[in-house]
Amino acid sequence: MANIKEQYETAKQAYSKWGIDVDSVLETLKRVPISIHCWQGDDIGGFEVNRGELSGGIDVTGDYPGKATTPEELRMDLEKALSLIPGKHRVNLHAIYAETNGEVVERDELEPKHFEKWVQWAKENRLGLDFNPTLFSHEKAADGLTLSHPNPEIRKYWINHCIQSRKIGEYFGSELGTPCLTNIWIPDGYKDIPSDRLTPRKRLKDSLDKIFAVEVNEDHNIDAIESKLFGIGSESYVVGSHEFYYGYALRNDKLCLIDTGHFHPTETVSNKISSMLLYSDQLALHVSRPVRWDSDHVVTLDDELREIALEIVRNGALDHVKIGLDFFDASINRVAAWTIGTRNMIKALLYALLTPNDYLMQLQDEGNFTDRLALIEEFKTYPFGAVWDYYCEQMDVPVKESWLEDVKTYEKEVLSKR
Ligand SMILES: C[C@H](O)[C@H](O)[C@@H](O)C(=O)CO
Ligand SMILES: [Mn+2]
């Protein structure tokens, strides 16, 4: 489309006045993988033979028709979404997405072979895979406690599940030639005021020590731990708090995974990235959109998303922050949800790359806060959209909202027939 190219050329000139080389910005953007969570496609159901109800203090609301009910459907839906998203990305799996040929396989007995089809599919689609043990939606997590459980047998079960998960991560990494991020999130906590905060944390620390004592090849598997402030049913106390995991990660050389929905409503993750990167070389994100609580709404291009992207870009941290997504909305078309949220994450990174960050930093050091504010605001209406459209065209994905037609056709021809 000539128009898109013309508008791109005009935009390039506007940005080049500020020393921004838009062509090289797009080269940089192409190389940033986003880890797309598979669980948006089936409302975190998974494919276990003895599937449990969703638990762990998280909730998916809505009953939009057409959710994936088999691994084949989920992969097909992911392929559709990926065809609408510019760039080469990763897919993030949970243990409940194992394929066990109709057999009940306990989570502590899961093995790489149960994920062979996912690996085959990832190879065919040139995707990296990330992984998560699933410590919820299970009878052994029915009271909301897992790795910090007072019962050593229950702790042992979940410890073994996490060890097996790291081996599955190692398998993903070695097969696909790109390390797998294996992230542990547990729901453990209490609804009401605890009478002892320390003992469950001691038990969690001990469980993590046992999990990480088993060696896996770090070239293939990278361990992360995800904190949380509260969940449904754990409003008063969560064992794996931010302080707990931050301390553990620093001392044990693990990655902290920061979920944007896991903090107080006015507490921003964008303000944590620079501090955390002073002390760790790498950190990981679950980008989500909390609306009043950890509601996991689809990510929009809001101020906080742009600020997160700015923090990553202006601090030269694109290779230090592993960007993953974590939202689940069952009230809209699920393929559209993936597409909207992932395109927004990429748009935010593009926006940040098209910002004269060095100059704005210089203005701050000079105490020139007038120019700083004026330029930050003016750049919001620079022709960023023209660059985005050109990028989509170059990457062979639909430009502007035209992807919505693809999703509607897919809904009519595929999803509505489920
Ligand atoms: C399904 C995910 O693992 C889960 O959402 C977790 O990452 C989380 O954020 C829990 O609130
Ligand atoms: Mn998360």
TrEMBL record:
A Gene Ontology biological process term: L-lyxose metabolic process
Alphabetized InterPro entries for the sequence: L-rhamnose_isomerase, Rhamnose_isomerase, Xyl_isomerase-like_sf
Cofactor binding, note field: Binds 1 Mn(2+) ion per subunit.
Pfam family, one: RhaA
SUPFAM superfamilies xref list: Xylose isomerase-like
Listed EC numbers: 5.3.1.14
Pathway involvement of the protein, from the record: Carbohydrate degradation; L-rhamnose degradation; glycerone phosphate from L-rhamnose: step 1/3
Cofactor (UniProt): Mn(2+)
Molecular functions (GO terms): L-rhamnose isomerase activity; manganese ion binding
Positions that bind Mn(2+): H262, D294, D296
Keyword Nuclease appears in the UniProt entry: no
Gene Ontology cellular component annotations, sorted alphabetically: cytoplasm
HAMAP family named in the record: RhaA
NCBIfam families, per database record: PRK01076.1, rhaA
Protein name, UniProt field: L-rhamnose isomerase
Gene source species: Lederbergia citrea
